Amino acid sequence: MKPAPFDYYAPSTLEEVLALLGQHGDEAKLLAGGQSLMPLINMRLARPAVLVDINRLPGLDYIREDDGMIAIGALTRHASVASSNVLKKSCPMLPHAAQFVGDLQVRNRGTFGGSIAHADPASEFCAVVYTLGGEIVARHAGGSRVIPVEEFFEAPLTTALTPREIATEVRVARIKGAAWSFRGIAPRFGDFVLAGVGIALDFDGEGRCGACRVGMFGVGPTPLRAYKAEQSCVGNRLDEKLIVELAELAATEADPSSDVHASAGYRRELLRWLVGWNLRNASRKHQEEMK
Amino acid sequence: MTRHIITVTVNGTLYTREMDARKLLSDFIREDLGLTGTHLGCEHGQCGTCTILFNGVSMKSCLLLATQADGAKIMTVEGLAKDGVLHPLQESFWEHHGLQCGFCTPGMLMNALYFLTVNPRPTDLEIRRGIAGNLCRCTGYVNIVKAIKAAAEKMAQNKGA
Ligand SMILES: Cc1cc2nc3c(=O)[nH]c(=O)nc-3n(C[C@H](O)[C@H](O)[C@H](O)COP(=O)(O)OP(=O)(O)OC[C@H]3O[C@@H](n4cnc5c(N)ncnc54)[C@H](O)[C@@H]3O)c2cc1C
Ligand code: FES
Ligand code: FES
């Protein structure tokens, strides 16, 4: 339970970080909150030769509205996401989801950028950004690029970032209507979920569904969208019959696997239930809003 | 492996020490400073018994490198009692039997201390969620929750007085 040896750098400028990444490539690892990387290093499941600590970089801890999206600096701690008034107003699914991420100590140290870059298939933050839509700003020594979230998550713990890139900002779409819902099921409060679902829905004046997004997490190698369920929703009234149909459809779109925590079949069953629960919850919120 | 010199304040005392890059903050506190009140259960972030305050905020010291504490203010369980007088949290744990073997207690106390700064009047459920990152294998948590609730009342009274 002690780390293997490594060289450690804690630069105070982005340029130095990029130079170190350029020099060491995949020998190096960025260290943000360390709440995922340090356990791996302590257990020697990860043995990076070089650690580049980004905690001393200034100006990467912010949450602000930017061009119709919310921009979140990579070093924003989970606790700040949980308590942000900007997010509570414009993207309440994120602070809501934040309370389920780990525990108080983890939320005090873990960073938003780290959570997105780590790409755990059961990560709440990855799920919310994937569900609502967004993009990741990545910097490398030669410049920068913006990666749409649909192209970002490639496999468990694998993203489109190269070893020479750092994510500096994550942008997530605002939630326009009130009709959203987010819930996962975990063995204990704060554990990684066995399955989770996030939903954002628009309704037209007649109470029919407009644009609809159904995100699923913990039930595939990356966060997923239930595209077929989303399409079947549009233009229809969200009655019990449709809800059951949509839950069935979403379950066919998931790709869960079995591990010590739960079988694939159980995960799929949870997912079916969660899609139904979240659709009913979103629809109830909408009706309350209309009153 | 790189070596590093850090200056860090722990429980009000300033220390300057040299160490290997891979030294965990938890090991630094226990081995280099001899402050063995901070316990180690899992050393991978699961049990919370290594919880300390890092610049006033509760964190698991086994997931921090000692080098990261350069310039920081740290508080460990040894910093709670003042001049032989127990902190209200410690008193309450004593009065309500908030510990049995005591292994989890240092982390429980330090996390509760931070928790009460952000939520000075918590409900039982909020306390349970607040200490979700601290495992206790003995008490079943009921008396720990009672102790933290009683401490919150005591601390509010002390503030009012
Ligand atoms: C007990 C416990 C429970 C947890 N429970 C949950 C949970 O329920 N849900 C959940 O989602 N997470 C959970 N986590 C993980 C936690 O949310 C982490 O904070 C998060 O996964 C990683 O963020 P970090 O800042 O700690 O990153 P680190 O651990 O520092 O880094 C993680 C990875 O991302 C890379 N990285 C970090 N920042 C950047 C960046 N800016 N650009 C490019 N790469 C980067 C690192 O090189 C590393 O590979 C838990 C952790 C613990 C210890
Ligand atoms: S020893 Fe740090 S969390 Fe268990
Ligand atoms: S009192 Fe023994 S582990 Fe908590």
Write the layout of secondary structure elements.
The complex is a heterodimer of chains A (about 290) and B (about 160).
Chain A: E1 7-9, H1 14-24, E2 28-31, H2 37-42, E3 50-53, E4 63-66, E5 69-73, H3 78-83, H4 85-90, H5 93-98, H6 104-109, H7 112-118, H8 124-132, E6 134-140, E7 143-148, E8 153-155, E9 158-159, E10 166-173, E11 180-185, E12 195-203, E13 209-217, E14 224-225, H9 227-233, H10 240-253, H11 264-290
Parallel strand pairs in A: 1-3, 2-3
Antiparallel strand pairs in A: 4-5, 5-10, 6-7, 6-10, 8-9, 11-12, 12-13, 13-14
Helix pairs in contact in A: 9-10, 10-11
Chain B: E1 3-10, E2 13-20, H1 25-32, E3 51-54, E4 57-60, E5 73-75, H2 88-95, H3 105-118, H4 124-130, H5 142-160
Parallel strand pairs in B: 1-5
Antiparallel strand pairs in B: 1-2, 3-4, 3-5
- What's the helical proportion of residues of chain A? 25-40%
Helix content of chain B: 25-40%
Beta strand count of chain B: 5
Shape of chain B: globular
* Number of self-contained structural domains of chain A: 3
Name its key features.
heterodimer; A: 291 residues; alpha+beta; Uridine Diphospho-n-acetylenolpyruvylglucosamine Reductase, domain 2; Enolase-like, domain 1; 5-stranded antiparallel sheet; 4-stranded antiparallel sheet; 14 strands; 36% helix; B: 161 residues; Ubiquitin-like (UB roll); DNA polymerase, domain 1; 2 domains; 5-stranded mixed sheet; 35% helix; binds flavin-adenine dinucleotide
What does this structure look like?
The complex is a heterodimer of chains A (291) and B (161). Chain A has helices at residues 14-24, 37-42, 78-83, 85-90, 93-98, 104-109, 112-118, 124-132, 227-233, 240-253, 264-290, and strands at residues 7-9, 28-31, 50-53, 63-66, 69-73, 134-140, 143-148, 153-155, 158-159, 166-173, 180-185, 195-203, 209-217, 224-225. By secondary structure, chain A is an alpha+beta fold. Chain A has three domains: 7-53, Uridine Diphospho-n-acetylenolpyruvylglucosamine Reductase, domain 2 (2-Layer Sandwich); 63-173, Uridine Diphospho-n-acetylenolpyruvylglucosamine Reductase, domain 3 (2-Layer Sandwich); 180-290, Enolase-like, domain 1 (2-Layer Sandwich), CATH 3.30.390.50. In chain A, the strands form four sheets. In chain A, strands 4-5-10-6-7 form a five-stranded antiparallel beta sheet. In chain A, strands 11-12-13-14 form a four-stranded antiparallel beta sheet, with helices on both faces. In chain A, strands 1-3-2 form a three-stranded parallel beta sheet, covered by helices on one side. The longest helix of chain A is centred in the last third of the chain and has 27 residues, at 264-290. The model of chain A has no long low-confidence stretch (mean pLDDT 96). Chain B is 35% helix and 17% strand. The model of chain B has no long low-confidence stretch (mean pLDDT 97). The relative contact order of chain B is 0.15. Chains A and B meet through strand 1, helix 2 and helix 6 of A and strand 4, helix 3 and helix 4 of B. The structure holds flavin-adenine dinucleotide (FAD) and FE2/S2 (inorganic) cluster (FES) (2 copies). Residues 29-37, 39, 74, 101-102, 106, 110-111, 113-115, 117-118, 120, 123-125, 161, 166-167, 190-192 of chain A line the site of flavin-adenine dinucleotide (FAD).
